[in-house]
Structure prediction request, 343 residues.
Amino acid sequence: MENKSASGSVDTNAVPEDVTRESKAKKIIIDTDPGIDDAMAILMAFNSPELEVLGLTTVFGNVTTALATTNALHLCEVAGQHAIPVAQGEPRPLSGEEPLPADFVHGTDGLGNTNPAAPSGRAHESAAVDFLIAAVNKLPGEITVVALGPCTNIAKAIQLDPSFAKKVAQIVFLGGCFFRSGNVNPACEANVFCDPKAADVVFTSGADVLVVGLNVTERVVLTTSDLERIGNSGTKFGRYIAEVVKFYAEWHLKSDHLQGIFVHDPSAMTAAIDPSLFSWKEGVVRVAETGLCRGHTLLDMGTKKWGENGNPWVDQPKVKVALDVRAEEVKRLIMNRLMSETT
Prediction:
């Protein structure tokens, strides 16, 4: 089928010219809303030989979509990856609501109020949805999307191109909280809360989805001494992280009484690198879209056969949810990638 752009016309310019089949590394597109822990995950990816980053697509969440694009371009420059395309994504959720950035967590600039200089690069000419569809159609079965923010871009790609869910190799999504409290309120996690409809679209699309939620990411903690070690490593990424993380660490101390930080996005990136460091449960996941528990993610553990009669849990595709994590090994991998010289 023809690829339709968000405007409904055929977008012949959306195919990234430098997407190739040459590398044996896992090809990924990072869908992101940077964000301090997004920044850590993106730099990790650039420093991981197991991954080949084909592009970044941006979305609202921690910051506005426009600022997410600026920050993504900035991070590509920090990493010396000037040729990596950055495609700007959807500015608001599928419901059309105006999003509220989490500046109290990440700072007004999304990078800990470090106020970096404006990047010299410019966003890709294609919108994020078109970029995703074109890349996956060019290399069907070969591209993993690592989703570090709300799923809006991915959900719209699925809606515009019904073959997207089968052609994408995998979607690794940082989102949800399973059998524990969330980080927006007791019911939900931020990425899903920002666009619960989009998350439900992705979970029920039939794509191969790995869901990495707070129930595992909050077991992976970089302590104050870990952060000092990263900062004192003498590497470019280590020095950079040491500066942007200060605001984030102060927020964790106030919010969670934690001497250190949870590394949510880097943990999801680790799942893309080595999923064997997590234990997975396969089942149907649905999302509450409205009400007091908006954004709540519920996994059917498969212990009962449900009746039919329009039951929204019956005959739905399954996803894989991380229920356990080898936290110390994940932490070591994250620290290694942030303290190593860039590849």
